[in-house]
Every structure is written in C-alpha cells, then in structure tokens.
Amino acid sequence: MSSAVRHTLAAIWRIESAHIVAAVARRVRDLGVAEELAQDALVAALEHWPKDGLPDKPAAWLMTTAINRALDWLRHRLMVEARHNDIASDLQAQQAHVVPDFVDTLDAARQDEMGDDLLRLIFTACHPVLSSDARVALTLKLLGGLSTQEIARAFLVPEATIAQRIVRAKRALADAQVPFEVPRGGQLAERLASVLEVVYLVFNEGYTATSGSDWMRPELCSEALRLGRMLAELAPDQAEVHGLVALMEIQASRSAARTDAQGKPVLLNQQNRARWDHLLIRRGLAALERSERLGQAPGSYFLQAAIAACHARAPTAEETDWARIAALYTQLMQVAPSPVVQLNRAVAVSIHEGPAAGLAILDTLLLDKTLQSYHLLHAVHADLLQKLGRQDEARAALHHAAALTHNEQERALLVQRAQE
Predict the structure, then answer these.
(1) How far apart are CA 248 and CA 209, in angstroms?
(2) What are phi and psi of 211, to 5 degrees?
(3) CA 2 – CA 328 distance, rounded (Å)
(4) What whole-number distance in Å separates Cα of residue 60 and Cα of residue 134?
(5) Is the CB of residue 162 less than 8 Å from the CB of residue 135?
(6) Counting CB atoms within 10 angstroms of each CB, which of 91, 147, 236, 241 has the fewest?
(7) Are 216 and 258 contacting, i.e. CB atoms less than 8 angstroms apart?
(8) pTM exceeding the 0.85 threshold for the entire prediction
C-alpha cells in the first residue's frame, strides 16, 4: 500500500470510526460486534483501495461496507435461529436505513440519524456499569479513534492492560444487557454526568499528567476537546455540556505558556499571557455565554468555567478578580462540595483576604484523611506558611509534597521551591 493511501485511510478512520461503529451498533445492538464489523470494513479498505484506487467518497465507502457487513451478520444470525419467516421483513427493515450510493450531501433526516447514533454510542461507552478506567479506555477507543497502543502510551500503562480493559468493558455491557439508546427523563441527567466526567478525566490527564516525565499530554487534551465539542453539537440544550466545553477551551488556551523553553512547568501567575491562545479563549467565553443563556441552574462545570474566565479576562495576574473567584468557589462548594474544591477556595481566599484567612480554611483540610496523600494540599500549605514567614515549616511541607507526586516535572519544581 502506498504511504499516501495509508495516510489518507488512517486520517479518515480517525474522524469517521465513531460514526461507523455507532451506525452498526444501532443495527446489531452489540457494541463488541459493531466494532468488529467496523474493523472488517477497515480491513476491506486496506485490501481494495491500493488496487482499485481511492474511492470518490472514502467515508461513505467505509460506512456502506460496514453496514453491509452488519446486514450479513444479521442474516446469518436469523438463519442460525431458524427464523425463516422473519428474515425477509427483518432484512427489509434493516435495509431501509442503508444508503448504497452516498450523495454529496446528507439530508437533515440523515444527519439527525447520525447524530442520534453518536449520542447512543457516547452514552453506552460511558455507562455507569463500567469502572472509570474502563469508560475512559472505551471512549477513547470508540469515539476518540485512538488505537489501543496510543491509549496505553498516553496513560503510561502496558498495551495489554488497556486491551484487557476494553474487552472486559464490552463484555460487561453485553452481560448487563445495556441498551444502545439515549436515556430519557430523569435518567438523562444522571447518565450525562457520567459522560461529562469521562471527557473531563481525559482532558485533565492531558492537561496535567498524573505520572511520568511529561508535564502535559496534548493529544489527550485535543481528544477531550473534540469529544466535548461533538457532545455540544449533539446535546445543544444541556447547559453543563457547554460549561464543560468552555472550561476545557479556556484551560487549553494556556498550554503554550505552561512550560518554559526547557520544558519545565510555569505556574499560572507567572505565565506569559501573550502566549495564551486567544482564539480558544474567545471560543471558551462564547460557550460559557451559551451555557448561561439556557437559564438552567449553574452546575459544576459552568462554575469552574466561570472561574477560568476570570483568569482569561485579566490582562495581568495582578488584575485578576480574586473576590469573584472566591465567591464562585463558595458557590461551587454548595453545588459540588469536595475537599479539592475547598482547597482551591482556600487559595482564592488567601489571595483576596490574606494568607492567614486561607490558612484558617486549610487547617481543617489538613485533618481530612482523604487528602493526606494529595500532594497539592501540602504544596498550598507550604505556600501559605512561606507567606506568613514560617520558612522551616514551608520547606518541610514542600518536601512532603514532592515525595507524594508521581509526575517527575512536578516533583522537580517542588524540590526547587524547597531549596529556594
């Protein structure tokens, strides 16, 4: 196969694989089978395109081939079950969804159908019956278009581990007979929270890697942003979806300024704001406005995006509206209380009202057993102690924080601060 054809096929598959798997899954009602049939279409392309040339509509070729594989699979299953009387009607019903020769543009009904399929796929891959790790791996595989090897490399785990998670996830969905559908009514909000959680987990792992030698993994941030934007198009009336997109866009805008020329981390208040991506900031602020216009109760992602927007709007670190940030964190504690949110609130209060006020909040967190191994708690503690002139205690807290982190760049930064 020529390198040009191989590169084209890889690019098309990365973009279209989720649509193809989703369309097949709606027909066969089994996520594992759907992925296998979609892969069969990919193999067929590898066999035919080098000999026959690149088709006029490569994505349509892959979709049609995969759906034909699905129809063959359904026909075989019906024959095995000896349901001869139902074969003709069942195949006719399935065939009604097939477009043998794709036209240049899809009509509105077809676009809605594809959107519905993707929504079904997202909600299935992020089903709460799966563990968080399994949901992340399956989502990146099916919706991100990443290979098992790419996912393993991004999360610094063996490829066999990721492969096993994906296999077990598909088996768990089949065993639990999870329907391939978008939940309705009260279940929608509950399941949507699971979907948004997975997307944000992927983004956070890319934004600040929890382990390894790299401070960031940009490819994961990109995949999370792509998933978030896709979800915003598919669920435009859900304020928290736009809130999450706003949050990720604004945070991603700082990526170029988060490391220096040597690749070492640069903290937010020390970043060169001229290096921030102002296109991403504008997109983030627009998504935040869309979320607010929907008039729904402020959710966790909306409030976090509003906090990020305070930083994005400030020309310099000194001009940041810390009073508003502290108030937003107080509101966030009411909506989604957690020790980590309270820790961030302590930082905001310390900057707005002084280190002693922040330390008063932090003292209660230092007694919380769930945060004892969280390195950022001790890093913040050190910062407040240093501002209060308690240098020896601050140095000890920084060394403690350095010992707890698994990211090499972050550990080096904390050790350097302790030495200084």
Answers:
(1) 15
(2) -155, 170
(3) 55
(4) 30
(5) no
(6) 236
(7) yes
(8) no
Question: What pLDDT, in 10s, does the model give residues 306-364?
Answer: 999 999 999 999 999 999 999 999 999 999 999 989 999 999 999 999 999 999 999 99
What CA–CA distance (Å, rounded) separates 376 from 405?
Answer: 9
pLDDT tens, position by position, 59-72: 999 999 999 999 98
Contact, 311 vs 318, CB < 8 A? no
- In degrees and rounded to multiples of 5, residue 107 shows phi and psi of -75, 170
Q: Give the contacts of 73 (CB within 8 A, at least 6 positions apart).
A: 28, 33, 37
Do residues 48 and 34 lie in contact, with contact meaning Cβ atoms separated by under 8 Å?
no
Kindly report the three-state secondary structure assignment for every residue of the chain. CCHHHHHHHHHHHHHHHHHHHHHHHHHHCCHHHHHHHHHHHHHHHHHHHHHHCCCCCHHHHHHHHHHHHHHHHHHHHHHHCCCHHHHHHHHHHHHCCCCCCCCCCCCHHHHHHHHHHHHHHHHHHCCCCCCHHHHHHHHHHHCCCCCHHHHHHHHCCCHHHHHHHHHHHHHHHHHCCCCCCCCCCHHHHHHHHHHHHHHHHHHHHHHCCCEECCCCCHHHHHHHHHHHHHHHHHCCCCHHHHHHHHHHHHHHCCHHHCECCCCCECCHHHCCHHHCCHHHHHHHHHHHHHHHHCCCCCCHHHHHHHHHHHHHHCCCHHHCCHHHHHHHHHHHHHHCCCHHHHHHHHHHHHHHHCHHHHHHHHHHHCCCHHHCCCHHHHHHHHHHHHHCCCHHHHHHHHHHHHHHCEEHHHHHHHHHHHHC
pLDDT tens-digit map of 38-62 = 999 999 998 888 888 888 899 999 9
In the chain, CATH 1.25.40 covers: 339-420
Other CB atoms within a 10 A radius of the CB of residue 265 amount to: 17
Place of tokens 């996912």: 151
Location of structure tokens 């698994």: 406
- Cα–Cα distance, 58 to 82 (Å, whole number): 36
Residues 195 and 43: their CA atoms lie apart, in Å, by 30
Q: Are 302 and 243 in contact (CB under 8 A)?
A: yes
Does the domain at 339-420 match CATH 1.25.40? Answer given as yes
What 330-338 contacts at long range (C-beta under 8 Å, 24+ apart), as own/partner pairs, is 331/298, 331/303, 332/300, 332/303, 332/304, 332/307, 335/298, 335/299, 335/300, 335/303, 336/299, 336/300
